[in-house]
């Protein structure tokens, strides 16, 4: 039985010409187009099975995916892009930097991860990658097949971004670009067009442990390995049931995601001191916006379903769901010590939703201790 899928019939004729003289020039034209469209970095890697991608099997076997069963259902495709696009020869990886903090922000009443508080990054980045994909055929002067993904398909974007020379995967499991830090959205174009691969970047984390030591829930099983079930970005977004009690106090005032392991990374300190031009206002679109830039717990606890829909329109924050956001806010309220929130918490404690009621009772018990 073959271990990799056979070449797609439409691409077999190209294989003998894999090293033509025009490929480097074509690659630079593709890279230049991506940058002109507002992408911060574009690189190329061979579409093939790689040991880095195969680590996914070990990660899943350790149970680190938690309730994210959808990852395992298409694990074979995640380990080999040729299973996603038969005949794929190149992975075009792209990065787009989003606004971050020069220093970790002072704890606020309802903190939202910086990547999610602006316009939905999926659409912002997908628009650019679709434009790149649609231009490949005209640039190459021949029919080209491609598929585009931003964080929603069976592709490990970080693996391919590293192989394409956009940065290294740090101890916090985020891709780190030495010029731009780790506040990066990543996407890929899978294509049957042959483009010369870029050189992967070496690891520059050294002996630094800032991210590992700062994690409030000890979510890193070891450097470079995240146990997602202990990560606040998992418990506040992906987890649909109760947040484990042993992790609730560590959640602090986060109601959606967590930025701590990136806030403390010294590479992000260096990056934000040299902001890049933003002629297409992409980072402006991604910047935190009202009401999530400075949301209060009182505001969140008063949301009904319709107002939640309105305030999360075109936002990645919809991922947590209405109940999930309220659940997270109740935990944050219990941690915050603000007794003026007791009437709002009591309303949820007496409500019909058992998930919210349990978290509300926990919050009230926490406030009783303050």
Termini separation:
64 Å
Shape: elongated
* Low-pLDDT residue intervals, each spanning 5 or more residues: 1-13, 15-19
Strand order of the biggest β-sheet = 1-2-7-4
How many domains? The number is: 2
In angstroms, what is the radius of gyration?
22 Å
Tally of DSSP helical segments: 17
Mean pLDDT value: 92
Topology:
Elements (H helix, E strand, L loop, with lengths): L22 H14 L4 E6 L4 H11 L7 H5 L1 H5 L10 E8 L13 E2 L8 H20 L5 E4 L7 H7 L4 E2 L5 E2 L7 E8 L18 H5 L5 E3 L2 E2 L5 H7 L6 H7 L2 E3 L3 H4 L2 H7 L9 H5 L10 H5 L3 H7 L9 H16 L5 H8 L4 H15 L2
Parallel strand pairs: 3-10
Antiparallel strand pairs: 1-2, 2-7, 4-7, 5-6, 8-9
Helix pairs in contact: 1-5, 15-17, 16-17
Description:
With 370 residues, the protein is α+β, with helices and mostly antiparallel strands. It has 2 domains: 284 residues, no CATH class; 75 residues, Leucine-rich Repeat Variant. Helix content is 40%, strand content 11%. The strands form 4 sheets. It has a 4-stranded antiparallel beta sheet, with helices on both faces. It has a two-stranded parallel ribbon with strand order 3-10. The protein has a two-stranded antiparallel sheet with strand order 5-6. A hairpin with a 2-residue loop joins strand 8 and strand 9. Helix 1 runs antiparallel to helix 5 and helix 15 runs parallel beside helix 17. The longest helix has 20 residues. The chain is elongated. The N terminus is likely disordered.
């Amino acid at each position: 039985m073959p271990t990799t899928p056979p070449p797609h019939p439409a691409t077999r004729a190209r294989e003998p010409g894999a090293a033509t003289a025009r490929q480097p020039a074509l690659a630079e034209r593709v890279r230049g187009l991506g940058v002109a469209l507002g992408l911060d970095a574009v690189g190329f890697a061979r579409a093939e099975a790689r040991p880095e991608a195969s680590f996914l099997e070990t990660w899943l076997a350790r149970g680190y995916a938690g309730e994210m069963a959808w990852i395992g259902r298409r694990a074979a495709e995640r380990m080999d892009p040729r299973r996603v696009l038969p005949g794929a020869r190149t992975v075009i990886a792209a990065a787009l930097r989003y606004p971050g903090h020069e220093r970790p922000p002072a704890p606020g009443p309802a903190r939202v991860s910086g990547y999610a508080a602006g316009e939905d990054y999926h659409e912002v980045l997908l628009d650019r990658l679709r434009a790149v994909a649609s231009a490949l055929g005209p640039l190459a002067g021949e029919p080209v097949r491609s598929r585009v993904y931003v964080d929603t398909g069976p592709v490990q974007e970080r693996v391919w971004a590293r192989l394409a020379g956009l940065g290294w995967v740090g101890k916090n499991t985020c891709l780190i670009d030495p010029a731009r830090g780790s506040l990066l959205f990543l996407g890929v174009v899978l294509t049957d067009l042959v483009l010369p691969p870029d050189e992967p970047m070496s690891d520059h984390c050294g002996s630094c442990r800032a991210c590992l030591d700062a994690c409030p829930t000890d979510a890193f099983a070891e450097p470079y390995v995240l146990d997602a079930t202990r990560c606040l970005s998992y418990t506040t977004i992906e987890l649909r049931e109760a947040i484990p009690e042993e992790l609730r106090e560590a959640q602090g005032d986060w109601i959606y995601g967590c930025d701590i392991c990136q806030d403390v990374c010294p590479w992000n300190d260096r990056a934000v001191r040299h902001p890049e031009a933003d002629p297409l206002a992409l980072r402006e679109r991604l910047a935190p916006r009202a009401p999530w830039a400075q949301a209060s717990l009182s505001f969140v606890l008063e949301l009904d379903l319709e107002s939640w829909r309105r305030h999360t329109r075109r936002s990645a924050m919809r991922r947590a769901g209405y109940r999930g956001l309220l659940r997270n806010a109740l935990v944050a309220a219990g941690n915050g010590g603000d007794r003026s929130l007791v009437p709002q918490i009591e309303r949820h404690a007496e409500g019909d939703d058992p998930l919210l009621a349990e978290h509300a009772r926990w919050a009230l018990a926490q406030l009783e201790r303050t």
